[in-house]
């Protein structure tokens, strides 16, 4: 991971660290590694999304461990150095700076520590389409609904999940959402 961190420019690495802190602070649902990876690649750095996601997971673990152990910025940097870390100097400086500026804002309650982690719903998009024909059937005229759910997994990685439904399936889906809304109104 240290080799991949070396590739990431300091400003992008700082942005990644800040987004992770915001995620741990429940201010954002997750880190959009796909968008950040694309911007890093546009700047001329060759890194893939899988490597960036691994780095984000490592940093998330690092910061959450520092919160649990109530480490100061200097203690965190000392711990990184004593662990035989081969992190580049710019990365250690960014970690120290971000932790010094924003680390103490992370509130960890006992409930949050013991709570089971599940994904978080971020957004939903849908579109209506009609399949007109295919190579095996000349005239389909088959309507369908495509739904794309954007979710943040427990580590904060944001991903899109897409699926298609027939009109009857979509009507059932809609009915279930209406039921959930009516139940939520009674709470």
UniProtKB/TrEMBL annotation:
A GO MF label: NF-kappaB binding
Domain COMM: start-end pairs: 120-187
Short name of any one Pfam family annotated for the protein: COMM_domain
Xref: InterPro entries: COMM, COMMD4/6/7/8
Similarity field: Belongs to the COMM domain-containing protein 6 family.
Task of the protein: Scaffold protein in the commander complex that is essential for endosomal recycling of transmembrane cargos; the commander complex is composed of the CCC subcomplex and the retriever subcomplex. May modulate activity of cullin-RING E3 ubiquitin ligase (CRL) complexes. Down-regulates activation of NF-kappa-B. Inhibits TNF-induced NFKB1 activation.
Name of the featured protein: COMM domain-containing protein 6
Annotated source species: Ptilorrhoa leucosticta
């Amino acid at each position: 991971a240290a080799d991949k961190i070396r590739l990431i420019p300091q400003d992008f690495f700082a942005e990644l660290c800040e987004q992770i802190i915001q995620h741990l602070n429940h201010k954002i649902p997750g880190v959009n590694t796909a968008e950040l990876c694309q911007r890093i690649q546009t700047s001329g750095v060759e890194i893939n999304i899988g490597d960036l996601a691994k780095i984000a997971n490592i940093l998330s673990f690092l910061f959450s461990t520092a919160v649990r152990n109530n480490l100061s910025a200097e203690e965190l940097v000392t711990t990184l150095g004593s662990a035989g870390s081969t992190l580049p100097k710019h990365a250690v400086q960014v970690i120290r700076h971000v932790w010094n500026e924003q680390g103490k804002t992370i509130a960890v309650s006992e409930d949050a520590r013991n709570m089971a982690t599940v994904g978080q719903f971020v957004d939903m998009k849908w579109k209506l389409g009609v399949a007109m024909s295919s190579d095996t059937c000349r005239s389909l005229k088959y309507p369908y609904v495509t739904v794309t759910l954007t979710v943040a997994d427990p580590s904060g990685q944001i991903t899109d999940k897409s699926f298609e439904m027939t009109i009857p399936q979509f009507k059932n889906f809609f009915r279930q959402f209406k039921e959930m809304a009516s139940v939520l109104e009674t709470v």
